[in-house]
Design a protein that fits this description.
By secondary structure, the chain is mostly helical. The chain has helices at 2-52, 59-79, 85-98, 116-119, 126-142, 159-170, 173-189, 197-210, 214-227, 231-243, 247-257, 259-271, 281-292, 296-309, 316-334. The chain contains 15 helices and no strands.
Length: 346
């Protein structure tokens, strides 16, 4: 009897232990299944991304693989909602296909998929820009300290920088504020010795100007020029000075840079290397530059074009003041000069 009871206790204990292990295995199973699902979908996404970049397939197949890659990454994100990597890859893949192909510094993927419109530097896909921003926002929310946000990786620009450019091109006040915040984050993570700091400062200064934060804009332009004194930044500083009603200083700065810089700036605008938001903003820069070098007829036409574009209504009065001054000069030149001694040469 005692032996039977002892055997019963041993069997019961063994069964209980087996049930504990089974429950532990069962409890762990959803996590293991999620991991397996995540890894499988990420692999599929990578495979489709690689196929989408192939030069040996047609455009329809390229976009099919692109869509399948995005879908796989989204499935991976659903399997492990706290992991930021799927969102990083969604953003980078979409950016490579829809925006790097319009960029003269395109680096990552064979861009046979770009349409003629996408090759035009002035084109901008608003829907895809918002989709990329949403993906990178999700990535940052899950991995706020990931170095890929603020460090160039394999020749690609930082996520924060690319996102700031997309926000800038969307051009709403909220987007401009988001762009400024991204540039500020970049600067806070740089040590001040990196080559891209001047570019970030210049873009931040221009963004502050578009937001009407003129004092911050001027100070940031000065800092940018100390770090990287390129023509675009110098002219941006002159425009900010002019809009802050320091026109004489603005014109003197432009003129002191020389005609070679004027030609370089025009070339940058024509090739799409320098962009403006909204597009009509370019006329303010060109008009101010032409006025500084004494090309008054050209300047009049560009001030008129800026006013007609409606770009940045808050700066329209400054443009009209320039136009009025130049037209007054023109009228004075048109008045014939009468001799004080009209009978002397008769």
């Amino acid at each position: 009897m005692k032996r039977a009871l002892l055997l019963a206790f041993v069997l019961a204990a063994s069964t209980a232990q087996a049930n504990v292990w089974e429950r532990a295995i069962d409890a762990d199973q959803p996590e293991r299944l999620a991991d397996d699902k995540f890894e499988s979908e990420m692999r599929q996404g990578d495979e489709h991304a690689l196929l989408a970049s192939s030069r040996n397939i047609g455009k329809k197949e390229v976009f099919s693989h692109l869509q399948n890659a995005i879908a796989a990454y989204r499935n991976a994100a659903a399997a492990k909602p706290r992991d930021g990597e799927p969102y990083f890859r969604i953003g980078k893949l979409l950016y490579a296909f829809y925006f790097d192909c319009t960029d003269q510094w395109a680096r990552t993927i064979a861009f046979q998929t770009c349409t003629d419109q996408q090759r035009d530097p002035k084109s901008f896909n608003v829907a895809k820009a918002k989709e990329i921003i949403a993906a990178w926002d999700a990535f940052e929310a899950r991995a706020p300290l990931d170095p890929r946000l603020s460090v160039e990786v394999s020749g690609d620009t930082e996520i924060l920088f690319d996102r700031a450019i997309l926000h800038t091109k969307l051009a709403t006040k909220a987007d401009l504020e988001a762009a400024a915040l991204d540039y500020e984050k970049l600067l806070s993570r740089h040590d001040g010795l990196e080559g891209g700091t001047g570019r970030v400062l210049g873009n931040l200064a221009e963004t502050y100007m578009m937001l009407g934060r003129m004092e911050e804009s001027l100070e940031t332009y000065r800092e940018a020029l100390r770090a990287y004194p390129d023509t675009s930044t110098l002219y941006g500083y002159a425009v900010a000075l002019d809009r802050d009603e320091s026109t004489r200083a603005a014109l003197d700065i432009i003129k002191s840079s020389g005609l070679d810089q004027r030609r370089a700036f025009y070339e940058g605008v024509q090739t799409g290397g320098t962009f403006f938001v909204p597009e009509g903003e370019v006329f303010y820069y060109l008009a101010l530059v032409d006025e500084a070098f004494g090309y008054e007829e050209d300047a009049i036409g560009k001030w008129q074009a800026y006013i007609a574009s409606g770009a940045h209504p808050e700066f329209q009065p400054r443009a009209k003041a320039h136009l009025d001054t130049l037209n007054a000069h023109k009228r004075r030149r048109a008045i014939p000069i009468e001799s004080p001694w009209p009978d002397l040469f008769r």
